[in-house]
Design brief:
Blueprint (H helix, E strand, L loop, with lengths): L13 E3 L7 E7 L2 E7 L16 E2 L5 H11 L20 H22 E6 L4 E6 L9 H23 L7 E8 L8 H16 L3 E5 L5 H5 L3 E9 L6 E8 L11
Parallel strand pairs: 7-8
Antiparallel strand pairs: 1-3, 2-3, 4-5, 5-6, 6-7, 8-10, 9-10
Helix pairs in contact: 1-2
Pfam families: Acetyltransf_7
Protein name: N-acetyltransferase domain-containing protein
GO molecular function: acyltransferase activity, transferring groups other than amino-acyl groups
Length: about 260
């Protein structure tokens, strides 16, 4: 399942730069430019809403496992590949493109661990990211144009047009992905219901962009309704994204009153 507020999980310290011995440093290479990011010891989290049905919060130390799940789930997704399958990367092998795909998912996942909510079910068989996607990783010139000049402005404007004043209050389901080995076990349902229950308790809407035509009927089962369809157009063919919103369901008071 693929898709595209914010949680009670506080940010942990994260900086980009040269490593120090007291920190765990993950080295990466994107667009032929070496880089690294430091992972500090995670601070104690604030009170997190109780989890159920095997759903748990992913820690900073687990970002690679969570990212690997999403990389597999979105390996053939048109939107996920939109910034990689570009004319100025035609000379790259599929292995090089796959490595970049994984690295992008690692950036996205770690960013949401810091300033959002990342949950998982099973042995990282399914992962969900909720929060804001504000990254500045390195892509090819065409990849950057697609991401920064087309994709982000389109998503921002569409969300604002759809939600209006509620834009900064809604729960934003950025990614929900399930490995092939984890499908058919109800993992995605558990992750979605965890977020929708939180949203209902707070009286907030849920918002997502679905990049797979098979998914809107699934999301409708959870109360999401399609609002509009937008198109990514720089790649020579239109790539659609279905915009869906779920309005909060009123919670019954104890005693049925």
């Amino acid at each position: 399942m693929a898709s595209k507020t914010f949680s009670a999980v506080p940010p942990v310290a994260c900086r980009f730069g040269e490593p120090k011995s007291a920190m765990k440093t993950t080295a990466i290479k994107i667009n032929d430019v070496p880089a690294s990011f430091r992972i500090f010891k995670q601070k104690p989290a604030a009170t997190v809403p109780p989890l159920a049905d095997g759903v748990r919060v992913v820690t900073a130390a687990e970002y690679e496992q969570a990212a690997a799940c999403l990389a597999e789930a979105f390996g053939e997704d048109d939107v996920a590949r939109y910034f990689i399958d570009v004319p100025d990367r035609d000379h790259w092998t599929e292995a090089e493109k796959w490595d970049l795909h994984v690295e992008i998912m690692e950036y996205v996942t770690y960013a949401h661990i810091l300033k959002g909510l990342v949950t998982t079910v099973g042995d990282f068989e399914a992962v969900a990211l909720c929060g804001m996607w504000r990254l500045n990783y390195r892509l090819s010139p065409e990849g950057k144009r697609r991401f920064f000049d087309e994709f982000l402005p389109l998503l921002h404007d569409t969300m604002h047009t759809t939600l209006g004043d509620r834009e900064h209050e809604a729960w934003y389901l950025v990614y929900i992905g399930t490995k092939r080995s984890g499908r058919g076990k109800g993992h995605a349902r558990k992750l979605i219901e965890h977020v929708t229950k939180l949203a209902d308790g707070e009286g907030r809407a849920c918002y997502l962009e679905s990049s797979n035509v098979a998914n809107p009927p699934i999301y409708r089962r959870f109360g999401f309704e399609a609002c509009r369809t937008i198109q990514l157009q720089r790649g020579g063919r239109n790539i659609p994204l279905d915009i869906m919103v779920r309005e909060p369901v009123a919670q019954e008071k104890k005693g049925g009153k």
